[in-house]
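Example record

One chain of 334 residues, shown exactly as stored in the release files.
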Amino acid sequence: MTLFSDLAGQSPENEAAGAQETAGAVAAERPALAFSIDEPVAVVSPVVFASPHSGRLYPKGFLDASRASMLDLRRIEDAYVDRLLADVHLSGAPVICGLVARGFVDLNRAESEMDPAMFEDPSPGWFAQRSPRVDAGLGCIPRVAFNGAPIYERRLRREEAERRLDQVYRPYHRALEALLRRAQAMFGQAWLVDCHSMPAETEAQGRSPDIVIGDRFGASCSPGLADLVEHLFRSRGYTTARNSPYAGGFATLAHGQPGLGRHALQIEVRRRLYLDEANVEPHDGFISLRHDLGEIAAEICAFARAQVGLEPDETKKKAALDTSAAKGLGRKRP
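Predicted structure tokens for this chain:
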């Protein structure tokens, strides 16, 4: 079932040089943009929503060098989460989405989470932060695709990793930080909601919950936010879990500092709710989930406004009617 086309005219993904559709993704000579930002008409909430893993732009040189199939590469994306969030900016909060595929560079890792064995010329201590994710082949530059399929025939050069960081990783994180700083300057606090999707369970694992809410076991945000989000999903019939198996990734660790006025929460959505995982195509459940996420985002924004002491009629006074603070950060999706 095709619910939308990723080559629909104005998409920023198609402004990459030589863009061509490949298995529902976009292959391009080079990325023109690392991310997109959906800005609201007026920023009326301290919340920033993010989707770092939904990018489906694949640089052509990367595809030429990859031994993994396009389907295996696509199956490690948080496929179409950016589209699930398409209505969220209507709540008065910006949404930032990575545009470049996770297989090329993972935006929800520390840039030091590199496996030195992947590189021809690692110097001692160069980006060698070991973690279970790195050991599993899913560091900042992933080594494997779906089901452990190797991505590369050869070892990479350090300059290749540095180029990916400079072209994609660092611009995304500079833009995210700018949005959070703007929120904190306007409202005294910033609230990050980092959105992901999770693969289907195996038979041995049993049925996984529909939604996993990660707050790093209470360390990354106000407990009231996690309680609210869990209630909002459960009241709509979704099953939920807290911090297991996902307690929060790099973004929640880096930005979740409640004592400094920074709150961060991770939301993982079960892919089977909206996606045919075998073919990486949305199914009929996509529309209802997108609708629910739009409503839930509005409730989160209202909660965050109340937490910073704003009544509904006061938000207009705080609204950034001119969103020039974010100009130059990215491009709005159509």
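Notes: Residues 12-62+78-99+168-326 form a domain with the Aminopeptidase fold (CATH 3.40.630.40).
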